[in-house]
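Deliverable D5.2: sample structural annotation.
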Amino acid sequence: MDPSKLDQCQFREASTERFREAIPAVVNDLVQSCNTEACFDHVDTEPIPSRDAIVKIIHMALRILYPGYFTKIRVDSTNLHYYLGQEVTTLFEAISEQATLAIRHECLRHDLPCIHCGERGQEIAADFIRNLTNLRKILATDVRAAFEGDPAAKGYDEIIFSYPGLFAINIYRIAHALFGMKVSLVPRIMTEYAHSLTGIDIHPGARIGESFFIDHGTGVVIGETTEIGKHVRIYQGVTLGALSLPKEKVEELRYQKRHPTIEDEVIIYSGVTILGGETVIGARSVIGGNVWITESVPPDTRVLTKKAELIFREKEK
């Protein structure tokens, strides 16, 4: 080997070692900063819920709710009973584990009385799987609403496989069921997973009736205390939100209704912002695009912005 190259290699190794010598001091600083206001950490013997495991729960539930759509194996009448038996059992165990971890985490963090978190986690999982048939029924109304509301849809398969609005609604309804069982953290992880993939942000605490359709969907925001009736259709860029509050009022209103109510058969077009817990959009109303609303609208009302004046000028040559 060329002696000059050997010298270069030895120099590089010495330089690398010199830089690596800084690592122990950095690690020590990081350890010292844990458990201070400068660091959010969970350095504890008790594990917290796993985001990856919760995402897997979503996909398990979808395989059960839509048999044959999201699985690598063929599902037919011969193996359907066995297939669902395996999937439901696995789902029960996964929900039980993550619900238990979530409950235990809250209990220890807030020093709450023991509620037998392991047993409670299994109870939640059992209640959830008992509700799967009803969950499937309401999701079927959402699929039909998408087909009936979108002439671009050529069939139910296309909607189930590819519509981001339905994907977000699927996950919202799964998360909402767990939210109603007082499971902390897990439902938010679920809906934020949908948000990250679709741009549709639905809080699991929102209450949404059957036959709900989100067309296109990007930029839709539905706040925690929103109430939406049956057969409602909304388009991209719609915000159902809360009015901005001064900092000192946030805690006071944390558990009060802050988001609007949308009654049955309302259509809300793109770019609409509707704010406030006392704002009610009456049944069968149509809200035109790019409208800002902070007060109630009576039933059977059309709300439109005044037509903008268009100016046409000949392009300079």
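Annotation notes: The CA atoms of residues 147 and 154 lie 8 Å apart. The chain has two domains: 32-199, 206-304.
The annotation will be released with the project's public dataset once the embargo ends.
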